[in-house]
Amino acid sequence: MSSNQYINRELSWLQFNARVLQEAEDETVPLIERLRFLGIFSNNLDEFFKVRYATIKRIDLAGKSAKSVLGGIKAGKLLEEITQIVIDQQSESLKILDRIQDQLENHNIFIINEKQVSKTQEAFIKSYFLTHVSPALVTIILNDLVKIPSLKDSGAYLAVKMVMKEEVPQQGISKLLNRQVHDRKYVLIEIPRSIDRFVVLPAEGEKQYIILLDDLIRFNLKTIFNIFEYESISAHMIKITRDAELDIDSDLSKSFIEKISMSVKDRIKGDPVRFVYDMNIGEDTLGYLMGKMGIDSTDSIIPGGRYHNRRDYMNFPSLGNDKLLYKAIDPLPIPGLVLQGSLLGMISKKDYLLYAPYQTFAYVVKFLREAALDPKVKTIKITIYRLAKISHIASSLINAVKNGKKVTVQIELRARFDEVANIRYAEQMQQEGVILIFGVTGLKVHCKTCVIEREEKGKLIKYGFLSTGNFNESTSRIYTDYTLFTGNQELLKEINKVFDFFEINYKVSRYKHLLVSPHYTRTALIKLISTEIENAQKGKSAGIKLKLNSLSDFALIDKLYEASQEGVKIQLIVRGICSLIPGIPGMSENIEAISIIDKFLEHPRVYIFENAGDKRVYISSADWMTRNMDYRVEVSCPIYDENIKQEILETFEISWRDNVKARVHSINQDNAYRKNNLPACRSQFALYEYYQKKLENYQL
């Protein structure tokens, strides 16, 4: 393996996050949406440090080279490179934030700090502080503590320094001038997460004002520390990011839910992997804090701006100004699939495809609600990876149990950063009588499947759905995903085999239709690519089209390189990590790759193989990453309905034509926008128009 064959996955991911930052910078994007993209950029970075940076740090500390895993880069060198890239990106994000705030003022929206508070605003701010903020504050005086308390992962803190007053005896000026650290008090104030970060102040005419909670606290420092005699007081923000790896207890007396719950709670003790501080903080304060916190050179130490946790900008208030937001779309119905009728009755006649958020996710909830009420439905089996905070999916499953159905739920308690919500629902469903399965030892269950059995004429007939995304009402409004509703008995029998594997792990079934990880997906994909190579060699039509979130598995990349070298044309739409390098003569000249970042998060996994004109089309839960091939349970489903197959081909082509929000993956890693002489195509907007026309034509 040569290091110049691949882009390191971490560096490629940072380029993905740079594309998110481009959306914040793009002046064609509505202003408040741009602020929210800044929030997404910051949130992404938090998760990156908790998971990927922490993993590389563990490799480095263990003294392992791991160059084969890291794409030819030593762990220590990679940590340094990541830190420098992040410092540059953070600096750029601050400049973008300043420009956005200047432009907001043109719309009479002013974000003020504690020094800009007017007399009329002062009374409101003091009252708001005493009523809402003061009771929620956690304030820690550090001087008398041997060790600083464990700071919350990704929590934001104000590091306060008070220079204390001192009685000055006659001829004692020199003592005052040479005062040491013990004449200062250092304090940490935790910014409460339970209170909105953006406090909307009373409007003044047409002008609207917002103050960040941090600055509202700064304004009230005198009130907080009124028992102290000090000469000066200052406050600067700091933030710690911790390793988010779960350490699962091996105690056999504890249930799996208990073990995961304890591991999530123990995350607050995880090793720090990033320390971000206000670059204007005093050197004495910074040194004092780093010494107390045990921060050293192996951690990523990043000077930042006045404000951290900019992820909160994802929830920046709209202020009733729709002109500064994307125009909301109304999710469309699926032609021929009527929510007011029996979905099971309609699905028994033909398959249907849902493409959210262009079409309404309500069909998934309706399917489960109907199954819960239908006296002829006997069983429901479903896999759950991430649930919404208020989940109608979970409610429907509990309702089904109450109506006498046998309900089996495979729930992944280790879904990163959603463990708490999944644990809460798992406990609730278990109490109500739902049969819970907690996966397979050593594997995460990431597939998105559901199958029900309904008694019809003395036989059990199956219905179900498979998806590329989570069964989550909240994310379905912003993630694009396909869901196939089917009554195909062969496909649904094989979904049942997947559930059999959950319960009897040593039994590996054979599959004629589905591609199932960790047993068959890799070999099946290699075989499909090999078929395209053979067809190209025989002069038959050959081609591969993939839509993925990430592409980083070296063996699959090598196979795509081989196909390219044999003349197979390959089109890749890869939103995030792309370790493959397209367009290199002699290696990948027949491969093109783009990434689309826009209003919605591109999330489907689609595999299309030309197959000498008889196209094979799959929708899948699996990206082309090693974890999805070898360490997760994944399901890829073939599309047999010719109309649905054509729909997926057409929607892929619309995405491929994007020359507005598409960036080109290249060896330069510069996120260049795709430019060509074709008519402008903004694929997400074009896809909504596509489904509008499809609905209009059906109604005609």
From TrEMBL:
GO terms for biological process: polyphosphate biosynthetic process. Belongs to the polyphosphate kinase 1 (PPK1) family. It catalyses: [phosphate](n) + ATP = [phosphate](n+1) + ADP. Mg(2+) binds at R386, R416. Residues 6-111 form the Polyphosphate kinase N-terminal domain. It comes from Gillisia limnaea (strain DSM 15749 / LMG 21470 / R-8282). Its cofactor is Mg(2+). An intermediate of this reaction is the autophosphorylated ppk in which a phosphate is covalently linked to a histidine residue through a N-P bond. Catalyzes the reversible transfer of the terminal phosphate of ATP to form a long-chain polyphosphate (polyP). This is Polyphosphate kinase.
